[in-house]
Each structure stands twice: as C-alpha cells, then as structure tokens.
Amino acid sequence: MSVKDEVFVVGDVHGEITLLKKLLEKWDREKQQLIFIGDLGDRGENSKACFLLAKELVEKHGAIYLKGNHEAILLNFIANPEEFAGNYFLNGGLGSLESFLHEHINEEYSPTEIALMMKHYYKDLLAFLAELPLYYEWDQYVFVHAGVDLGKKDWHDSTEEDFLWIREPFHKKKNRTGKTIVFGHTPTFYLHGDNDRSDLWISDDKIGIDGGAVYGGSLHGVVFDKNGLKEDHIIQK
C-alpha cells in the first residue's frame, strides 16, 4: 500500500520520450505514486531513453514499473536471439536495439552478436527489466499491463502470459473481482471500436489507458485517489 494519497499512471509509451517528458511535468512527486503500465520501448522515437528514464525513476523516486509484453519480448530476444529475432524485429524491436547500439546494426551483426553486445553494455538494465513486477495493487485498484484471467476464481492465479498479453477474454468477460482494473496493452481506439478515439476506455470497472500514442493517438497520465478517477492528463504529438 502506497503511503501517498494518489497514483499517477502512465499508459504505454513505446519509445515516445518527448511525450513522456512532457507528461511527467504533470506528475506531483510529493503526493502521487508514479506507475508505468509497461511497454516503455519499441516503435517510437527513442526506446533507450524511455527505458533508462523509467529505471531511474524507480530507483531514485520509488516509481512502480510493471512489465509489459514488449519488455518480455526484448528479454526473450536476449535469451534466445536466433529464435526470437524475427518476432522482436517485427514488433519494433530493431528500432529499440538501434537506439541502444547504432543504426543498421542488423546489417553488420547477427542476432547473437547483437544480444551479446546488449548484455555487455546494458547488463544492469536487462537485470532490472527481468525483475519487474506483473501487477500492482493499491486500495481498490489493480494495475496491470494487459489484464487478468477473469475466469479464475482468484485473479492472482492468472498466468504471466495473461498479465502481459491477454485481450478479448479479459475485455469481454464480467469483472467480479471487486477491484477496478487499470490496464494498457490494447489501444483504446480498438476498445472503443472506432479506430479513432484515443480517450480512456471505461467499462465494467475496467479502465483502458493505452491511448496509442505511438500510432498518433495520445499518452495518458491518469490520476486516481481513494475515491476514484480524479484527472486524466493527455499529451499528443
């Protein structure tokens, strides 16, 4: 349980460092617990800067950084580069690796060599990412990257894959947990069903906060207190 009166929850960043820095200007570090919903890297302008800033905020200011599926696919690539390179590169990972190392790196080095360089230069960051929590509970809220298995008697028994990857079964199944579940992973324009609106998706005590910033949507910084949703800071390109 956080000792702070409010939480400030950041939606999926996906490398958008300029948007993230603007959003964090809205965060009151004295009274708001900062929470990252996961997916700090891949696809956007500078993944390395986003990962390192989030790590610094955890270590210096007690931020909570939840593991997302994109943190997981980076770690999968590092562990088994030849097996996972195709999947990781297809999902924006190549841009992340270029931000860490240099452009056109895959033209010069094999996946195994790239992974070895990452382990050499970014050992501390990779160890940090490997230990990220899968969810965070605060008062009546559960914060999680993708969602939980609402078919389980106890949502805590969800698999790691569910916490990181689940979509429709969580979105559509009745929430009987007694908790408000705040999640990212699925851009809200999909949840709204119109491929247009990037505002929060709120339904059945579930709140989707991934505004699809990297796709031209918006980056959300959502403030909750014990009484409910208090404020939504929105940063757009």
Mean pLDDT over all positions: 96
Approximate shape: globular
Report Rg.
17 Å
Structural class: alpha/beta
The largest sheet has its strands arranged as 3-2-1-9-10
Helix content: 25-40%
Q: Helix count?
A: 11
Note the main attributes of this structure.
237 residues, alpha/beta, five-stranded mixed β-sheet
Write a structural description.
With 237 residues, this protein is an alpha/beta fold. 38% of the residues lie in helices and 20% in strands. The protein has helices spanning 17-24, 47-61, 69-79, 81-90, 93-100, 105-108, 111-121, 123-130, 160-165, 168-172, 188-192; strands at residues 6-10, 32-36, 64-65, 135-138, 141-144, 180-183, 201-203, 206-208, 218-225, 228-236. The strands form two sheets. Strands 3-2-1-9-10 form a five-stranded mixed sheet. Strand 7 and strand 8 form a beta hairpin. The longest helix is centred in the N-terminal third of the chain and has 15 residues, at 47-61. The two termini are 34 Å apart.
